[in-house]
Amino acid sequence: MVHNDMKPWFVTYTSLCLMGSESGLADVLLNMFRNLATSRYEYDLVAYSVLLKGFCLQGDLDSAMELLIEMINNSLIPTANSFNWLIYGFFKMGLLDKALELFNILP
Predict the structure, then answer these.
(1) How many domains does the chain divide into?
(2) What is the Cα–Cα distance from 43 to 11, expressed in whole angstroms?
(3) What CATH number does the domain containing 19 carry?
(4) 22 in helix, strand or coil?
(5) Angle at 98 between CA 70 and CA 56, to 5 degrees
(6) What is the pLDDT along the chain (107 residues), one digit of tens a residue?
(7) Which of 29, 45, 48, 106 is the most exposed place for a label (fewest CB within 10 A)?
(8) In Å, what is the CA distance from 73 to each residue of 10, 62, 106?
(9) Residue 96 belongs to what domain range?
């Protein structure tokens, strides 16, 4: 893309995040996410949700929860889908009390 003087834009990066999160590359994508966030790109709820899903699928619930808090700190309101991935992750890891806690605060 860059070789053809085409600049990637927000949707391009979000699409990369989606593909990578489903391939177990959430950590790599988070680094890309962080680097781009310091430049001219501002991520929206969709991009955060895609990364959140990736961490939950990998079982990295600490990173997923940190991302959820970052979303909220950036004035983004997580959707029920964001919470569903976290609940799924906690349930899958056998942490039913954490899953129930999140379920009880669903929007």
Answers:
(1) 1
(2) 10
(3) 1.25.40.10
(4) coil
(5) 55
(6) 444 554 555 555 556 555 555 666 666 666 666 566 555 666 778 878 888 888 888 888 998 999 899 889 989 898 888 899 899 999 999 999 999 998 888 76
(7) 106
(8) 20, 17, 17
(9) 2-104
Tokens 């799924």 sit on residue: 88
Question: Hunting for tokens 């994508």 — which residue is that?
Answer: 29
Q: Count Cβ atoms below 10 Å from residue 40 Cβ, excluding itself.
A: 7
DSSP letter, residue 97:
H
- What is the pTM for the complete model shown? 0.67
User: Taking a C-beta distance cutoff of 8 angstroms, is the pair 90, 61 a contact?
Assistant: yes
